[in-house]
Predict the 3D structure of the following.
Amino acid sequence: MSVINVGIIGFGTVGVGTFEVLTKNREIITNRVGMDVIVKKIADLDIKTDRGVEVHHSLFTKDAMDVIDDPDIDIIVELIGGTTKAKEYILKAIERGKNVVTANKALLAECGKEIFEAAERYGSGLAFEASVGAGIPIIGALKGGLSANRIQTILGILNGTSNFILTKMAKEGLFYSQAVQDAVNLGFAEDPPTLDVDGTDAAHKLAVLLSINFGTTAPFEDIYREGIDSLTPDDIRFARELGYSVKLLAIARMLDDRIEARVHPAMIPKNHILANVNSEYNAIYIDGDFVGPNLYYGLGAGKSSTGSAVVADIMNMSRQIRVGLKGSAPPLGHIHPPDKEIMIQPMEELITSYYLKVTALDRPGVLSMISGILGENHIGISSVIQKGRQINGSVPIVMLTHEARESDVQKAVLLLNNLDILTGKTVTIRVEE
Ligand code: HSE
């Protein structure tokens, strides 16, 4: 039986996970693919540290080009991450006609156009199932089972670290910084986990999903991003009392001539299916015009789950190589991609309802001043509660608004924050019904 040779660039957590899946499940992989799939070379700057897997020392090299230039290697797996060296290596591999598998959502979201075009020009296969939701086969679903549909809505919990932190805050009443520390201690989060908690990682993943849906790259910079670092356990508790959970959501909605694309903390009704996705789990809810709602759930991070997705891509490519169809499908799955760009609606034009928490001096007339400012800015209040005990004469006033325009809400918040009766910054959380 002939062999598919794989070269791995980057032997960190996901590299090790990929190696483990390929070696431990070698027999079933061989049976399913019809060829033996083996790792021929591994490049990493650190070839000394014991990663807890048995790898023959002869496989290692410090130079990624040894892998890319090896004529016997059919599939290059890029797992170093980032947008500099990874981009250089992927482009070099593509130029040499190699098939490439990557988990690099940052690169695909920020430099996708160049990478996708290069793959098509050189007829190289490019696959990236592991870039979104780790082992959740969402890219395969969009390109395969859902591909006959116009996708109308994507709602995703796409970052395991921030979901873990929010779950800790909700269930244990921890402050944000304590929950982050727990995530770091358990190995979920980088220290500091900036791209996870500020919404960038989820926005990268949303951009990749949008690219597949539309067959053209999404303008990443136009995706609104807001993180979870200013949320307090009080906000999460108040939200719960109002019947909601707080999640970092990636949201895309298809409008007539443009789309909504945004990542921010959002309140979702407690009985919404995504409200019960906890800890490091991810979930993606997709609504298609014919298929209706679909939900995908699973571990969105980690070596085994991500390794599983990387190996699935390697197996699909191996099957194509076996029948001589290398690089036959465009990476985004559209044979005739549209010639117009994806237009993302400016955030100021969003219309939704809001949770507002205003911390103000507990004096007569305060509520009417606040509601006056909201009313002048076309914001109607659907419920208001003065919560909790006075602390130094201040109380939190929690409100839910009717649907309002984002620009009006931002303007009202600025005016509120300038009032001298306010003793803290106003907190806003968008509500996703
Ligand atoms: N850091 C990501 C997360 C996993 O926490 O979900 C890799 O995409």
In short: The mean pLDDT is 95. The longest strand covers residues 244-254.
